[in-house]
Amino acid sequence: MSNSTPRPVRREYLAALALLALGAVALLAAAPQVWAAVRIDLAEDLAPVTVELSAAELAPVSSALGWTALAALAAVVATRGAARRAVGALVVLLGVGAGTAVVLGIRPTALAAAAEQATTVEGTLGDPAVAWQWPVLAGAGAVLLCVAGVLTLVRGTAWPVMSSRYDRHSAPRATRTGAPADLWRSLDSGADPTDENAEPKER
User: Fold this and answer.
1) For residue 94, is it within any domain?
2) Could you list the residue range(s) of the whole structural domain that residue 173 is in?
3) DSSP label at 199?
4) Per residue in 143-153, pLDDT tens?
5) Whether the Cβ atoms of residue 151 and residue 72 lie closer than 8 Å to each other
6) Which backbone phi and psi does 3 adopt, to 5 degrees?
């Protein structure tokens, strides 16, 4: 990462990475939790059955989108230019997809359908009890992904990129002269002063 990057731009870059990471973690943290419980009253005075529903039943794509967002975090760091903007657009789509899945998954009709599919017993469905903290957490994660994606799409080309100082072609060549000072400088850089094509060794 270049040290010449202005401090406000660097802060903006780090903030976008933090938003992306938080959004992904929020989706992954909410996915295994119980989002809703539906009571099924059975006939013939049998004890009622409670069906617990998680994101796997209500918003099954949320976990996969969370993992994809984490991979996108690494992609933002590793890319530059148009490629980084493309990653930003992908992150926006991840956020929109996750938010849509959450909203559709907690509709009353969706809860009832999921409860019927999650059990083999027949009875009368009661009103679902929704643990709102988990859908809200997942929804907040989706919003964070959208914000991070928009920032990357609009501002990503101005952000720092991975340093190329260790690239093979940017490494200083050994100086092949007979001057003792030049020989010492070549040795100090890790290069073979007798080989004009030598490159400094990593320390």
Assistant:
1) yes
2) 164-203
3) -
4) 999 999 999 99
5) no
6) -80, -10
